[in-house]
Write a structure and sequence with these properties.
The protein is an alpha/beta fold and 165 residues long. The chain is 28% helix and 19% strand. The longest helix has 18 residues.
Length: 165
């Protein structure tokens, strides 16, 4: 099964306007970096989308989860059907991104920049079904949120994307 090059992005009503802007801006950054990649937007609730091919649903909550080391979790990408294998159907290439708005607001940096960094990073996980991180200085590194300015997609991030195809 090949990962998609065209994704449906469902933006749940729970997203603030700043978070919606981060989704659109972050997805556009990926489109500019990856030739042939496209996104189609839909504003609706995330419920019941799990069997849709090449679909990413993004929603927000006010949860404040911590990881095992006590660090705030800003977002999670949840793979509806687990990690993909070559024999999986295209319908398996779907996931959701849970944005933890309250945690993202606690970084002491401009919220739009934090939201953009987090959403763009999580889209990278969603399109690759890969939860791994790469070296610091790249969008797909572990500590992306600690950057005060919006991150750019690097050549290493593009390699990360292409490694799943």
């Amino acid at each position: 099964m090949q990962h998609g090059m065209s994704y449906n992005l469902i933006l749940d009503p729970s997203l603030t306007l700043e978070e919606q802007e981060a989704v659109v801006t972050g997805s556009y950054a990926w489109e500019k970096a990856i030739p042939g990649l496209t996104f189609h937007y839909q504003w609706s609730a995330c419920h019941g989308f799990g069997d849709s091919s090449h679909t990413i649903c993004i929603y927000a909550d006010q949860d404040t989860p911590l990881d095992d080391n006590g660090y705030m979790i800003d977002a999670r990408t949840i793979f509806q059907h687990g990690f993909l294998t070559p024999s999986d159907s295209p319908a398996s290439d779907s996931c959701s991104i849970d944005i933890h708005s309250a945690n993202m607001a606690n970084h002491g940096m401009p919220y739009p920049n934090v939201a953009l960094n987090v959403v763009t990073h999580e889209l990278g996980h969603a399109m690759t079904h890969n939860s791994q991180h790469i070296a610091a200085g790249n969008l797909m590194s572990f500590c992306i949120v600690k950057q005060p300015e919006p991150e750019v997609i690097t050549s290493a991030d593009m390699d990360y994307f292409w490694s799943a195809r």
